[in-house]
Amino acid sequence: xxxxxxxxxxxxxxxxxxxxxxxxxxxxxxxxxxxxxxxxxxxxxxxxxxxxxxxxxxxxxxxxxxxxxxxxxxxxxxxxxxxxxxxxxxxxxxxxxxxxxxxxxxxxxxxxxxxxxxxxxxxxxxxxxxxxxxxxxxxxxxxxxxxxxxxxxxxxxxxxxxxxxxxxxxxxxxxxxxxxxxxxxxxxxxxxxxxxxxxxxxxxxxxxxxxxxxxxxxxxxxxxxxxxxxxx
Length: 232
Ligand SMILES: Nc1ncnc2c1ncn2[C@@H]1O[C@H](COP(=O)(O)OP(=O)(O)OP(=O)(O)O)[C@@H](O)[C@H]1O
What we know:
Helices cover 30% and strands 27% of the residues.
């Protein structure tokens, strides 16, 4: 789905990506790593939102910068989600659905997936932060894209919502959809992830089948020297 070769992205003096080479296959890939490591930049370059400073990336076999049409089959939720606040949830989701060549009726379906169907006709400025997260997720799923990118889908949601969101992802994965998920909260995805990529300091630090790298990932997120609840 994504083939990145020696990908670099600089923002002035900031080297957000410094030679990322990775192939992301169909299935569910978790992208992990520390704050500021380059995960979101990798996602945005892969989508063709940013032009790489150096190197190449192919999304579904095409350069996404030169062939933006490739994005039609792709859903995206950014973090934090940004929306025109005076529009209603319905207007926003219809706008996304039309851009994706989907039907207006898909808007209700996507809203129901994340429990915001009753808020669709309200202005986004009145949404709580939890509802904004649900709206951004509905935006990624509207029209049933084949590949769904989610940046921090579990950030700022309550405990019950975590289970609810993971259930929706699990169901859609079961229907053959592929996911690229950036998440600090990776444990709920442990049983679902096929592959993992750790990006740190703008480089790929670790990659592979998730079950093979799961122990290393757990180790990375454990505070230094602490094991089984006590200092090692
Ligand atoms: N548009 C931009 N302009 C300038 N600097 C940017 C831009 N986007 C990202 N950066 C910088 O690039 C580096 C990588 O950021 P990025 O958001 O990709 O990291 P991340 O791994 O997704 O981190 P986080 O988990 O905090 O979102 C950071 O130093 C960030 O401040």
